[in-house]
Design a protein that fits this description.
Elements lengths: L11 H6 L10 E7 L6 E3 L7 E3 L1 H13 L4 E6 L19 H12 L4 E6 L12 E3 L2 E3 L1 H15 L5 E4 L6 H11 L6 E8 L6 H7 L19 H13 L3 E5 L5 H10 L4 E5 L1 H12 L5 H15 L3 E4 L2 H8 L1
Parallel strand pairs: 1-3, 1-4, 1-12, 4-5, 5-8, 8-9, 9-10, 10-11, 11-12
Antiparallel strand pairs: 2-3, 6-7
The protein binds ligand PBG.
């Protein structure tokens, strides 16, 4: 035998030397849930270890993550029903919880990279990402709302806009609106291949944002399709996206790999709430070693070609691996 692959596995030093992929805190965007109030936290019951924070405590959480080397955050608001309506008007309310807190965050932590979510669901009385008319999620009329939402967020000084709504043409419309308002430096991380997935369940618990009727299959992608992700990626690239995201991540590593090989833009993987919950549940039962499984999952996303990972594991990874 001339080739003995085991020689490159014989010691820790050599194994580290030939390791092809590394995970670091630089790769992470840590999603955070925001609630109203003061000095308030509430744990998401289906996501042990993940909390909703009131504005004062979200600032503290960001500070403690920054010390661990996590510098990028994606903030999601959890709103009471009274703030929700058909047209998601609360999403432009400068005095509202979300925009006010975003401004505060950027003021206190100008070096942090803050990403926001653009979609109607947290503010919509229908619980859908787009405007609902006669039971239909209408595309083009939604675009104006999304563009307005993106500009309102950019006005808070945020760094990356994350359209997660899956309406056709939204990246282009948002790019144009941002540029028209002088926000040429605000980036867009498009949820390019976002699937209609059962893995979002715990997130919808966290925000109380589940659809009030039907499902999201007329706008989110069919889990059976990967060529369709290429169509979305072509469109997002032409429309001015800066990052292409695949979501969920674990069951879609083939899509991450495909996009990373065929497109030059950086690929982001969203390691979603259900993926987190599964690991936590099995680990709590003692059925798997949660720490090792977590590290392996994150590594697999990098290996598949993601350069950015949105993950609820960000903070604990940093705590355990630094
Ligand atoms: C909102 C949005 C969702 C997630 C991120 N942005 C939920 C959905 O589309 O229903 C899911 C994130 C997760 O599950 O961790 N459009």
């Amino acid at each position: 035998m001339l080739q003995r692959p085991r020689r490159n596995r014989k010691s820790e030093v050599i194994r580290n030397m030939v390791q092809e992929t590394q995970v670091t805190t630089h790769d992470f965007i840590f999603p955070l849930f925001l609630i109203d109030g003061k000095n308030k936290t509430s744990e998401v019951s289906s996501m042990p270890g993940i909390f909703r924070y009131s504005p004062d405590l979200i600032l503290k959480e960001i500070e403690s993550c920054m010390k661990l080397g996590i510098k990028a955050f994606d903030v999601f608001p959890s709103l009471a029903d009274k703030y929700k309506d058909k047209r998601a008007t609360e999403s432009f309310n400068k005095k509202g919880l979300y925009l006010k807190t975003l401004t505060q965050i950027k003021k206190e932590f100008p070096d942090a990279c803050i990403m926001t979510d653009v979609a109607m669901d947290p503010y919509s009385s229908d619980g859908h990402d787009g405007l609902v008319k006669n039971g239909e999620i209408v595309n083009d009329e939604t675009l104006n709302i999304l563009a307005k939402m993106a500009v309102a967020q950019a006005e808070c000084g945020i760094d990356i806009i994350g359209p997660s709504d899956m309406m056709d043409g939204r990246v282009g419309v948002i790019r144009e609106a941002l540029d028209d308002h002088g926000f040429t430096n605000v980036s867009i991380m498009s949820y390019t291949a976002k699937y209609a997935s059962a893995f979002y369940g715990p997130f919808r618990d966290a925000l109380d944002s589940a659809p009030k009727f039907g499902d999201k299959k007329t706008y989110q992608m069919n889990p059976a399709n990967s060529k369709e992700a290429l169509i979305e990626a072509h469109l997002d690239t032409q429309e001015g996206a800066d990052f292409l995201m695949v979501k969920p991540a674990m069951s879609y590593l083939d899509v991450i790999k495909d996009l990373s090989q065929k497109f030059d833009l950086p690929i982001a993987a969203y390691n979603v709430s259900g993926e987190y919950a599964m690991v936590k549940a099995a680990a709590a039962k003692g059925w798997i070693d949660g720490d090792r499984v977590r590290d392996e999952i994150l590594l697999s996303m990098k290996r598949a070609g993601a350069s950015v990972i949105l993950t609820y594991f960000a903070k604990e990874w940093a705590l355990k691996n630094r």
